[in-house]
Inverse folding.
């Protein structure tokens, strides 16, 4: 798959942040600004699939102000799963990779102000993954219609029960990963789309890495449109069925 990189990577940063974008022109500049204001030792990589709304051009504008922003531009819409794994591979191949890698949606459903809290749990427990969890005690979803809540809860329950995962929210995309864990599992990640969230927690369980949850407030996107389609739900279900089959 073709891609183009813009921006220079400074070495010696502790945290990598992956922001997958498809048509997030209304959100991306503010989100980058908010992450920058946290003053973390971070490099942000935006994986944009040549969004027709000009998301990439907005990222390039932010690069004039922030030297730690990288634009990783792919030639066409290629799925959330491959965007995240391309981000992982990008950080892992650096001469000195970050110790921790965050993934989060670029539509403000995930509050960047929760990043330090996720990081603190990661550093205290030395986990493979810390999940920003909508379904563990204190976590919450605001603004989703009932139908969307049902789809999400059902997907979670199917994945959790069928794969024997011992935590509440295995489909949240708000995560802090340890690089040690990602290095171990990167060659086992093959998801095209949203099932990447299940594939990573499943790999953590298989490789005996600890997974912790931190309750977060998830707010439905206020700007831009949803990319979740029926074909992506099917892809998610088919991954789960195959995973259950393989683990028999
Ligand atoms: N690079 C890339 N990013 C994607 C793709 N699909 C979704 N994204 C991004 O992944 C994140 C999650 O996608 P969303 O559309 O917010 O999915 P969702 O949260 O399930 O659905 P809504 O919040 O209802 O839109 C967002 O930042 C999207 O822009 C894709 O094919 N390629
Ligand atoms: Mg969203």
């Amino acid at each position: 798959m073709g891609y183009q990189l813009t921006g220079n990577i400074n070495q010696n940063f502790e945290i990598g942040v992956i922001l997958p974008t498809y048509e997030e022109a209304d959100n991306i500049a503010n989100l980058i600004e908010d992450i920058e204001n946290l003053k973390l030792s971070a490099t942000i990589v935006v994986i944009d699939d040549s969004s027709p709304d000009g998301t990439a051009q907005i990222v390039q504008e932010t690069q004039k102000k922030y030297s730690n922003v990288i634009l990783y531009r792919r030639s066409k819409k290629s799925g959330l799963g491959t965007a995240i794994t391309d981000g992982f591979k990008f950080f892992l191949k650096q001469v000195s990779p970050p110790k921790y890698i965050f993934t989060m949606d670029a539509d403000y459903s995930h509050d960047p102000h929760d990043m330090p809290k996720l990081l603190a749990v990661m550093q205290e427990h030395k986990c493979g993954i810390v999940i920003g969890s909508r379904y563990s005690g204190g976590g919450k979803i605001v603004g989703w219609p009932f139908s969307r809540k049902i789809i999400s809860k059902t997907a979670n329950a199917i994945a959790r029960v069928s794969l024997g995962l011992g935590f509440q929210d295995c489909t949240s995309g708000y995560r802090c990963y340890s690089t040690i864990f990602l290095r171990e599992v990167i060659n086992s990640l093959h998801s095209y789309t949203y099932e990447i969230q299940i594939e990573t927690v499943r790999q953590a369980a298989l490789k005996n890495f600890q997974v912790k949850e931190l309750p977060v407030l998830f707010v439905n996107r206020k700007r831009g449109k949803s990319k979740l389609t029926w074909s992506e739900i099917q892809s998610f279900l088919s991954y789960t069925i195959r995973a259950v089959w393989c683990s028999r």
